[in-house]
Amino acid sequence: MNRRSFLVSLSTLAVAQLLSGCGTGDRETLKILLLKSSIPAQAMGEFLKQLDNRAVLNFSPLAQLDELFRLLQQWKKPSSNNSGRRWNLPGRNRDAGPSNLADLVTLGNYWLERAIAQELILPLDPTTLAQWDNLPSQWQTLVRRNAEGKLDPEGQVWGAPYRWGTTVIAYRADKFKNLGWTPQDWSDLWRPELRDRLSLLDSPREVIGLTLKSLGHSYNRDRLDDLPELKEQLLALHRQVRLYSNDTYLQPLLLGDTWVAVGWSTDILATMQRNPKIRAVVPPSGTALWSELWVRPAGPNPVNTETPPPASSLVRQWIDFCWNPEMAVQLSQLSKAASPMLLNRDRGELPQALQSNGILLPTAEAIANSEFIEPLTREIAETYQALWREIRLS
């Protein structure tokens, strides 16, 4: 799960260092540990202006989502176990002990269930968030969980989604000029012209999921043994594949060794910006969704999550700032992922660059048919892994 590993811009680092270096005095401090490039530097400056210098902002970036999850685990350990441990942050070292606990951390929805079950994070009170009711229901459902981290419509709210993306099909437009067609949906991956011309993610959940989707089923189907056609379809897809990878799947496409690649929208949007030969499509039959969230670290001390300490006013202000209509547009334009707050807007009111970007902002039909990949039980996960090994060794 090491997608979206982009270098933070020099301006972002400059803002973070400038703001954290200011004299704090008795002013309130907001510490945020975020995924690199997920928040534009301009947003940090705009937020600071709104505070009239009444607070100190400390934004520190990390390159990988799994690093952020491990840091949440590190903070959960008793302080004696944290001595000598350091954050691996660009240009600085800080103790990973409780005194350096961040107020908010970026977390991918993939890790949300484990973060709750391991008591690494605290819930949020949605009644204190001005824009909560404007968050699309699909994203509200994503973050409502019980104490074990399972989806629960009556559960507490464990995160604030601030951007999202999809799994998409990218292709070399020049390779399809003489074929009379271009990839449009998952079913096209099985066309004979793509034999040995396909790059796929090295992920059983993604590959088995898209195959299930091509057969008219859910990405999150929990029974595979009653679908005899699934194995046959996976074997046929495997014969199309030249490469499985989570980090180098686009290189063969750029070189022309493959004609099609399945990957994450952030990676592919960045590649399309640099290379006009690369086009992409979000399958209208539906695809996998992912989302990045703001979560509150719990730290080492036991906390009653039924009555957790309230989030600070700065935490609430930051979340509402990310969700306000103007910032939702700016975040979507300047990062390679969209704010969920755009989905309840009239698309005709959005800037033309967003309206015309079908990868950043897919059609309403495609989104309605898409799903967040849900965690599997241990038993079902073993079934997926066994099928994956069998296919890969065939």
UniProtKB/TrEMBL annotation:
Q: Which domain of life is it from?
A: Bacteria
Which cell locations does it reside in? Periplasm
Pfam families for the chain:
SBP_bac_6
**Secreted found in the keyword field:** no
Record keyword Ribosomal protein present: no
Assigned keywords, A-Z: Periplasm, Signal, Transport
Q: What is its main location?
A: periplasm
Q: What is this protein called?
A: Extracellular solute-binding protein
Give the organism the record lists.
Phormidium pseudopriestleyi FRX01
Question: Lineage of the source organism?
Answer: Bacteria, Bacillati, Cyanobacteriota, Cyanophyceae, Oscillatoriophycideae
